[in-house]
Write a structure and sequence with these properties.
single chain, 5-stranded mixed sheet, 3 helices, mainly beta, 471 residues
Length: 471
């Protein structure tokens, strides 16, 4: 039974945020069904007696209230006699632009070293990153890895091909620890670097440590698990690589993968003799290029891989066995895990993000679809401060921020409503589906630093990341 217009409904207000929670004895309140978010926010602020108004968002049954209470009741066929439980949270802060780092060529990948990043949390307190001393890692199509400080200054650059570096475009770069970096490139190799900072005594440096050989095609994605000294790679040769980042723990490099005499890579030569090692396993089951790979967040012996063959595969790493394959309707280009929701997000060539339940017990493969991008979704990162939020980078020139609780029902089922769309500063913040300098290639989201994106505009862009999504 639909409610009558201008009727009233009882609401029970709750909050999990202690600083804005109402007293426990606060009972149901009778309000007009025409109330929307703004009116509800004013009501709560009045009840709290706040001197400065705190903008609030409201959730019902785990999803944000998209309209008035009247419309919510009508859509679900509920009577105004119903008592609705509304959870309220602090509203998000817009992701304002903070900084831009200029490069000489396209920037394919970014990562962050801070006290809140995975690599940063591994260091002892005496070596922790002081506020303002965080580091940004970038990989570029010029074949170089760079480390930046927060003042847009380069602290260290990797050597070129003649001194132990990559001989073609870098596709991925990741901090393993505060003193170790991994990078992969279209030259079919992965390189492990030693990163050193000695304060003001000498400049920071990036020195070659290990060269990893085994792939027969471009190595386009990396995932690191520093606690176990393990590394995953995704390659255009249809395989997933499983590697050790420790020289003593890695097998010899296969001769068939080493640069042959007379090839471009061999002719370039190197003045540095770097140990060459091979994979622990090459996992072969995909029938198309593998675009992305991640460790399962709750089990480092399990991995997920995404491929142009439309499949998400689950791997048991100790046995190099494919445990499960989930087929979708489109090529999968990027991955990120939402462990608290038991979901894996996959960016697709069809311009949307598919949320997949990888558990074998799941009855539905696709749990939700997030739509809004105008071109392929090639990079994903989860919010370090919220279990419900993620960010995506697309070839349409935007980074979008999503909250899976903020949904609406469209013609094709449950669809999206992104919270923010962040354009490239080099394009005046506009979104374009094509043209030079448009594509976003890489993304990282750090609690201290913010949303960091890399693009075809030869820039690393940093936007505010903390507080832009409700917790």
């Amino acid at each position: 039974m639909a409610p009558e217009k201008s009727s009233q409904v009882r609401i029970q207000l709750t909050s999990s945020q202690p600083d804005i929670a109402l007293p426990e004895k606060t009972g149901p309140i009778l309000v007009n069904t025409s109330f929307r978010r703004h009116a509800l926010s004013s009501l709560v602020n009045t009840l709290l007696g706040t001197e400065k108004r705190v903008p609030l968002d409201f959730l019902i049954e785990g999803s944000f209230l998209p309209s008035s209470l009247d419309e919510y009741l009508t859509q679900r066929g509920l009577s105004s006699e119903t008592t609705l439980t509304l959870e309220y949270v602090k509203a998000a802060i817009p992701p304002v632009h903070l900084a831009t780092f200029e490069h000489d060529d396209w920037v394919s990948s970014v990562d962050v070293l801070s006290n809140t990043s995975v690599a940063g949390r591994l260091v002892d307190a005496s070596r922790a990153q002081d506020p303002g001393h965080e580091r940004i890692l970038s990989g570029s199509y010029d074949g170089l890895v760079r480390v930046w400080n927060m003042s847009s200054q380069i602290t260290a650059t990797s050597p070129g091909a003649s001194d132990g570096g990559h001989c073609s475009s870098i596709k991925e770069a990741r901090f393993i620890t505060s003193s170790q970096i991994a990078s992969s490139a279209t030259d079919r190799t992965i390189r492990i670097w030693k990163y050193s900072e000695n304060g003001n005594l000498s400049p920071a440096s990036i020195a070659p440590q290990i060269e990893l050989y085994g792939h027969q095609g471009s190595v386009d994605s990396l995932a690191v698990h520093p606690q176990s000294n393990r590394l995953l790679s995704a390659s255009a040769d249809h395989s997933v690589g499983f590697w050790s980042t420790e020289k003593a723990d890695a097998p010899p490099a296969p001769e068939s993968c080493l640069p042959a005499r007379g090839t471009k890579r061999r002719r370039i030569g190197s003045s540095v003799s770097t140990p060459q090692r091979g994979p622990l396993w090459l996992l072969k089951s995909h029938t198309g290029p593998v675009s992305s790979v991640i460790f399962a967040p709750n089990d480092p012996m399990v991995a997920y891989s995404a491929s142009w063959d439309h499949c998400l595969k689950t791997w048991d790493l100790p046995t190099a066995t494919a445990l499960d394959a989930r087929s979708t309707s489109h090529s999968l280009l990027s991955l990120a895990a939402l462990p608290s929701l038991n979901l894996v997000a996959a960016g697709t060539s069809a311009r949307h993000i598919t949320l997949i339940d990888p558990r074998t017990s799941a009855t539905n493969i696709v749990a939700m679809t997030l739509r809004g991008h105008k071109n392929a979704v090639v990079s994903l990162a989860t919010d370090p401060d919220s279990i419900h939020c993620l960010a995506s980078g697309s070839h349409d020139g935007t980074c979008r921020v999503w909250d899976v609780r903020s949904t609406k029902t469209g013609k094709e089922g449950q669809a999206d409503q992104s919270m923010y769309s962040i354009g490239r500063e080099s394009l005046g913040g506009e979104a374009r589906t094509s043209g030079d300098g448009v594509k976003v290639f890489g993304i990282a989201w750090d609690s201290d630093v913010g949303l960091v994106t890399a693009g075809e505009d030869k820039q690393v862009q940093i936007n505010r990341g903390k507080g832009i999504a409700p917790s």
